[in-house]
Amino acid sequence: xxxxxxxxxxxxxxxxxxxxxxxxxxxxxxxxxxxxxxxxxxxxxxxxxxxxxxxxxxxxxxxxxxxxxxxxxxxxxxxxxxxxxxxxxxxxxxxxxxxxxxxxxxxxxxxxxxxxxxxxxxxxxxxxxxxxxxxxxxxxxxxxxxxxxxxxxxxxxxxxxxxxxxxxxxxxxxxxxxxxxxxxxxxxxxxxxxxxxxxxxxxxxxxxxxxxxxxxxxxxxxxxxxxxxxxxxxxxxxxxxxxxxxxxxxxxxxxxxxxxxxxxxxxxxxxxxxxxxxxxxxxxxxxxxxxxxxxxxxxxxxxxxxxxxxxxxxxxxxxxxxxxxxxxxxxxxxxxxxxxxxxxxxxxxxxx
Amino acid sequence: xxxxxxxxxxxxxxxxxxxxxxxxxxxxxxxxxxxxxxxxxxxxxxxxxxxxxxxxxxxxxxxxxxxxxxxxxxxxxxxxxxxxxxxxxxxxxxxxxxxxxxxxxxxxxxxxxxxxxxxxxxxxxxxxxxxxxxxxxxxxxxxxxxxxxxxxxxxxxxxxxxxxxxxxxxxxxxxxxxxxxxxxxxxxxxxxxxxxxxxxxxxxxxxxxxxxxxxxxxxxxxxxxxxxxxxxxxxxxxxxxxxxxxxxxxxxxxxxxxxxxxxxxxxxxxxxxxxxxxxxxxxxxxxxxxxxxxxxxxxxxxxxxxxxxxxxxxxxxxxxxxxxxxxxxxxxxxxxxxxxxxxxxxxxxxxx
Lengths: 352, 352
Known about the structure:
With 352 residues, the first copy, chain A, is of the alpha/beta class. Chain A is built from 15 helices and six strands. In chain A, helix 6 packs across helix 10, helix 10 runs antiparallel to helix 12 and helix 12 runs parallel beside helix 13 (295-304).
């Protein structure tokens, strides 16, 4: 069975009994009930994902940075040339990019996966070669890729998740690289949330009004062309990207392994929408690392009913926002594991 | 010279040239300009504080947890009995409280300071005894403490900051413990921001409507009684708390040592308002760890023009929100220190 289908067949719902046990435990810890706010919610969800309480600390963690190129770049949606995707992959391998710095800071591994970079990439221990094709076709002219290519890319992501889980990784972080990839992300978000292109199309790496207007038109026409596509995998093939498809597979692979999946920004948001459209149960395994300033990111989070752990106006991608959020998630687990209870500490409870 | 006066005499403005150098460096790093949002701003401010770029990573870090009791508890402003302050100090010493768990998680030391706990506390290596008095007087009846006691408490905080700086600590985090201390905090915030008691008085550890109405009346009358007090130290004495005064001294001590001071929640917000009222220059050394759900916290942050690094609906205090934010601040420094530039990585810049 292909890795993706195998993963999808194994995803079950999070464990409600473990969540309830975590809620009860929170109320016995030496703090006013509920006073750790959304950190408590995160701890409860980690228990539901693991199936027991206290939950394992989400550590070691790994960022899967999936890279791909985009034929839609020909429409002028980004000021950055396509070669930058490959150059940044080299930068990830050398350890000089933002995601390397922040991943090292929080103790997460970085695994770079070439799922569809246009150029050739020299071999590197940090780089996995899983090129499905050399960049997508221009989604403004026709489908970005074939259905078979979309499935292959889903497999690439699911395979990485399964391999990481098998080698003991306890938390998956999503990362991405692909010049032009906010355009297919906006298209997928519009198609899957029902929002207008104008609402979900942002400035990506920072584009001017003219280029933005072009981008909105490209997204509008892509969404309209995909209007009668109901199958999420076909939607990926029609208006998606190779790294987005791989990320959707990564998300479902993480859920299959009962691991928390910490999403980065707007590209991850698009991938998570696709993953939950394929398999709604995987939503229970997702955490939003941060809220990107890209408007599509907020639309995706709203649709996924996720609140971000960090909100610092980031819009870089690569997995940087997920890395910054990892210590928060780990802290949520340690609160449940390590705090004293009222009884054990001899602390008097409130008098109502 | 008393520790506080000595510290206050040494506080200078942050270094604008180092900040400008950091901005220029950010624009050379391999990422779209400005794409790390407020993480970039934090890095710029760390350079301004240190006086050079890249800035030192704010590490090692220490949480100063100042503990004191409050005579105003007699008014029924909290459902927790006064003895819980001492019990929680014992819990901090034993390592079982939330601040212990989160400080250990982020690699920060916890130093507990008894600046005004009512009861006797057994000696412990983690506890510094600097009791100025056994809890404040009831601020609903008269001044919470004398001017001399307020100055002594300021000294306690400034002394701890100076000692930590001398032993190599590179980041100060604020923490607090004191049953009833959201009441004097709300009073100080109302007095120093000009907001109404109703706007800045919250539910603290979680009180019902009836108790909250009592608390609002207590805050209103305290603020009205302090109406003609213009000297911030006299304000502390009139409607403050011993741990709040110590925290104000800690803030100014940190600024004097040119260290970043990472504020926790509403108690820290009140202390920071007092500190900046005494010495406006210390504002440049402050970072808001998080936004407490206490309404006074937001009022204080607005007045201080600080945006929180974390916003997770916490309302525990102890320093927990500051601990959760520490990895973000450290990440901001590492971005400036460790990322590759466009030149060094051979990455093409955008074509505008």
